[in-house]
Amino acid sequence: AFFWLVSLLLASLIWFISVHLSDREDAKLQYGLLIFGAAVSVLLQEAFRFAYFKLLKKADEGLATISEDGRSPISLRQMAYVSGLSFGIISGVFSVINILADSIGPGIVGIHGDSPYYFITSAFLTMALVLLHTFWGVIFFDACEKRRYWCLGLVVASHLLTSGLTFLNPWYEASLVPIFIITLCTGLWAFVTAGGSYRNVLKCLSCK
């Protein structure tokens, strides 16, 4: 979570400087800078995810050195899951905290012609982001470990695509549906990456 916060801080500084150095009266330019800031934020998040992977690898080597059997007590998959989940939770908190503050009032959502589904849609988007970060963490760590650079590229590309789709709001059908399709596909990918299979699902359902 700390690594994600640092990436957000750096992205915010870059966007803040860009805005102050540009023409604030140019609406199109400011909108472009907002998209630029979102893209930079995604790239920095993935860069810090990689930095965290390298840090955990060093820690894993140290734990293996001092353990009795020469193996680390924590597996890479466990670290990937925890890392992705923490990225997702802190991302979700920052995504929804201002929305929750606005929900206190005053006013009614949609009273000026805006969508009345703003809050429920924001909740679903936040849920998707938490899940996506968890899945991305599992895939990203496995790709780094096995040097599958095309997997890293797909993780970054799907992250950029997901962030870009949010700019279609308040046309929620055009953003929410593709994001949940990406979430489902990424979840299946992460499941297979973590060693999951149809046979394992059947065993789980039969409590074997």
UniProtKB/TrEMBL annotation:
Primary site of residence: membrane
Compartments it resides in: Membrane
Pfam families: Aph-1
Domain of life: Eukaryota
Membrane-topology annotation of the record: Multi-pass membrane protein
GO biological process: Notch signaling pathway; protein processing
TM region positions: 31-48, 79-97, 117-141, 148-168, 174-198
Signal peptide segment: 1-22
Keywords from the UniProt entry: Membrane, Notch signaling pathway, Signal, Transmembrane, Transmembrane helix
InterPro entries found in the cross-reference section: Aph-1 (IPR009294)
Claim: Membrane is one of the keywords in the record: yes
CC per GO annotation: gamma-secretase complex
Record note on quaternary structure: Component of the gamma-secretase complex.
PANTHER family associated with the record: GAMMA-SECRETASE SUBUNIT APH-1 (PTHR12889)
Job of this protein: Potential subunit of the gamma-secretase complex, an endoprotease complex that catalyzes the intramembrane cleavage of integral proteins such as Notch receptors.
Similarity annotation: Belongs to the APH-1 family.
Protein name: Gamma-secretase subunit APH-1
Organism (species): Charadrius vociferus
